Amino acid sequence: MGDYISVKYNTIEERYIGWDVLRIMLAVIVFAFHANIHLHLTFGILNDFVSVGAFCMTGFFMLSGAVLYLRYGSQRFEIKDLLKFYKKRAIGIVPLYLVVMLLFYLDNTFSRDDLILLPAEILGIQSFFSGSFSFGHNGGTWFVSCLLICYFLFPLFNELIRGMRTKGILILCICLGVVDIYSQLITGWYGFAELYSAPFLRCIQFMLGSAIASRINKDAGKAKNTIVIACALIITSISAKVITSMVQAGAFQNATYLQRLAMYDVIAVPCFALLLYLLGQLKAINSKCGGVIGRISSLSYPFFLAQFFTWSRCQDLFVRYRVENNRVKIAIAFLMCIGIAVLLHIAVEKPIKTNTRRKIKN
Hints:
Order of helices and strands: HHHHHHHHHHHHHH
Number of strands: 0
Helix content: over 70%
Structural class: mainly alpha
Strand content: under 5%
Shape: globular
Distance between the termini: 26 Å
Largest sheet: none
């Protein structure tokens, strides 16, 4: 999400294509999850899997930490470099976030409660306040707040991880994974405030991704692409089958949301960790195909935010024109979301990034 989505990992002309594909897949699953909730759309044999698609946010935060480490892992942050790093990270996600927030309030009633929370939202610190998820636009922008906090802490993560050897990295990854799962089990057991949008949980996942990426820097390109792709497909298929089977068996019917989320992460955290490492072994490619996939991947951030303006408009459209076919509804919602995302990227994200970065360089 944000600027890191369009990072070209080794040189200006190369990308880790496996991570781009993973990001696109996660974005599509989250879209389907939201479409299932807001529009009650169904996705055939994938519907049970899609119905628990919220777990994909675990993958997004791990992926964002991994990509950021590949770009900045070898850098030591002096004060001047630190300020430049923070400016670049903020430029990557804040302008579009603020524009979407403004459009949201123009499209909805602006209340006194919204006004009180507005300074925290502008600063991107609203995720620190438990329960803010249900206010205003925060049900769909909480991840921006968590990302900003992860970016703020990244230089510290970087210093901790960079000097570690393989054994230390492995121990750190195991500890972070255990903390992720255990913290959610505690929350579910005692009925504490949910952790889904909590910076603590997302920073743990972000750091886990960074730790995995520290090994990819050393191991990338050693494995054959076909073997890596085969292993990644096997892991994905098995994980999807396990989660789907658990849903179909009613394993979560009597569990709280947080307990279900903890159960999902028991599967999701190791699954995404393996996928990140395996897909990171794919050789960076320089081709038209890689460029196209990279451009699609770079739209994932505006694609997330575009969903704000998709669901209500789709509902109105379906009622007005009496659209009842499920497949037609899916196609309309998906195309509308893509259209809004492209518009946000071209009209807002791209020009603001370009102009602001030019000013920083000057």
